[in-house]
Design a protein that fits this description.
Blueprint (H helix, E strand, L loop, with lengths): L3 E7 L3 H12 L4 E4 L11 E2 L2 H9 L17 E2 L5 E2 L3 H9 L7 E3 L2 E6 L2 E4 L4 H6 L5 H16 L18 H7 L4 H11 L13 H17 L4 E4 L5 H12 L3 E3 L6 E5 L2 E7 L2 E10 L8 E14 L12 E5 L10 E7 L10 E8 L5 H4 L1 H5 L6 E12 L8 E3 L8
Parallel strand pairs: 1-2, 1-13, 2-10, 7-15, 13-19
Antiparallel strand pairs: 3-4, 5-9, 6-9, 7-8, 11-12, 12-13, 14-17, 14-18, 15-16, 16-17
Amino acid sequence: MEEEYDAIVLGTGLKECILSGLLSVSGKKVLHIDRNNYYGGESASLTPLEQLYEKFLGASAKPPADMGRGRDWNVDLIPKFLMANGQLVKLLIHTGVTRYLEFKSIEGSYVYKGGKVYKVPADETEALTTSLMGMFEKRRFKKFLVWVQNFDPANSSTWDGMDPTKTTMQQVYEKFGLDENTADFTGHSLALYRNDQYKNEPYPPAVAKIRLYSDSLARYGKSPYLYPLYGLGELPQGFARLSAIYGGTYMLDKGVDELVYENGRIVGVKSGGEVAKCKQVYCDPSYVKDKVKKTGQVIRAICLLNHTIPNTNDSQSCQIIIPQKQVGRHYDIYISLVSNTNMTAPKGWYIAMVSTTVETANPEAEIIPGLQLLGPIAEKFVCVSDVYEPIDDGLESQVFISKTYDPTS
């Protein structure tokens, strides 16, 4: 291992694999190490089903026989949907990783309001027929959406008199006469903010997020979200293949003893008795406990169901967002559902995930509003994990650390 690398990547989480793929494509010599013997790190997909039972319930735990063949299950530990017109999809197309993956559109996006689940309107017809808003509110909302589509930060005639540097998003809602419910659903189900802090900030970022939602929706029609067949774990593997094609070296099941510095700058990674030299390190927080701080916790419940989620038009895949105000919280609760149409479960079985940011000493009680929407649950696996972020930007040490995955879907 006396070779010198441009970069060493530690951990095979999605972010780390994307990075090693991009670094390899740009001609860098990359070594990729993971202490696990599988790809995906925290964001792995577990298959067969036995793996999930062993992880949460111990080595001797076995799934019930009626759950079908274990290998027909691919259960994401941290499921994430992709925005059809978002950065990651553009990156997948640009790098050609789409060669190794197939995607399917998620069937519906829903929002929780006043104890009920409503479909997030996907087009003008749905916007006019939805019971999320009253008749006059629909007209005001439509005007607002037209303005969002036409807004151009560089062209003041599209600002409608609202200076992008001084006007807050709350003032934009007021200008269009949108009520609190509509603002709630717009900010949380379209712009996908996790709390209401954004309302007090200048509006362009929020407008850009709402527009990304509309543009993504326009691509496939049912919802703005895509999801890879066989689970999210396919993504890190796709980028790992890309890296390997361009000369990246992979070592799974290899422990990392320490990072080696000279004058505060990274010079290598020690594993066993050997040191691999490098100019940069990219890693997840678990490899550098001294360079990260804990910023909170996330609770996730993986729920196996033998039915679709009630009140979602029998959707085989969907997302439901419970805005924080609806259940007296500071942060939203997220629910995602995938099934056999996504090649993640046998026919007739469904995988739902309920997640949120922990706010109290009793995290499980915090996701009850989400669990109640699922109907009868065949099996539930709950984990609470710490959230870390780097304490500096890494420029001085050349050690660049990703943040822990948030609870959003």
